[in-house]
Amino acid sequence: MKINKREFSRELGRRLTMVRRELGFSRPELAERFGISSNALGKNEHGESIPNPQTLHRLASDYDISMDWLFFNKGPMYHKEKKPMEELKKELDLARQQLAVSEKKKPLEGKEMGTAAVSRLTPELRELVEQMGKIPLLYHEILAHFHRFKRENKELP
Q1: What is the pLDDT of residue 2?
Q2: Distance separating alpha carbons of residues 7 and 12, to the nearest angstrom
Q3: Does the CA dihedral 44-49-55-61 come out positive or negative?
Q4: Radius of gyration of the chain, Cα coordinates, nearest whole angstrom
Q5: 3-class secondary-structure state, position 113
Q6: Helix (H) or strand (E) holding 127
Q7: Quick check: 105 pLDDT over 80?
Q8: Cα 39 from chain centroid (whole Å)
Q9: pLDDT in tens, 9-29
Q10: Do 36 and 45 touch, CB atoms closer than 8 A?
């Protein structure tokens, strides 16, 4: 079967545009993250060129984009389907409320825990909680991972 290079490039470019929009970046923002010019990314998105290996590596490693999906439109966009941000925010709010109830406190504001609760943690957990309070992405990633783990390991206590 002969592959039409022009059509392949166009489809790849269309999926790159989908990735950028899904991630919520403008073309200049994503280009800067990849260390390429906005023009180069535009050419990739319009199917005039194919992304360089470093860009493809960043897509896969930093954003978990499936190369099978990107190149061949097979399988999901992400290696592991990620939940939409709205769903993660709802889970995060629910977890905060549950923590507040368990500590018999008012709901947590932001991502701060009471000093009494933090002081009972091991040094490693204390450091983790402090970093999660400073880095929202870390907080969301750990919470999302925890919920995936719970869902996949329901048989555990």
Answers
A1: 73
A2: 9
A3: positive
A4: 20
A5: coil
A6: helix 123-134
A7: no
A8: 25
A9: 999 999 999 999 999 999 999
A10: no
Measured CA to CA, the distance from residue 134 to residue 61 in angstroms comes to 23
Task: Please compute, for residue 81, the number of CA atoms within 13 A of its CA located in the half-sphere on the CB side.
Answer: 5
Instruction: Evaluate whether 143 touches 89 at the Cβ level (below 8 Å).
Output: no
> What CA–CA distance (Å, rounded) separates 57 from 154?
34
Token pair 């923590």 is at which residue?
Answer: 99
**DSSP per-residue string spanning 30-97:** HHHHHTS-HHHHHHHHTTSS---HHHHHHHHHHH-B-HHHHHH--S-SBSSPPPPHHHHHHHHHHHHH
Give the chain's length. 157
Rounded Cα distance, 131 and 106, in Å: 22
Query: Do 65 and 77 touch, CB atoms closer than 8 A?
Result: yes
Q: What CATH code would you report for 5-72?
A: 1.10.260.40
Look at phi and psi of residue 47 and say left if phi exceeds 0, alpha if psi is from -120 to 50, else beta.
left
pTM: 0.51
Would you kindly state where each structural domain of the chain is located, as residue ranges?
5-72, 85-152
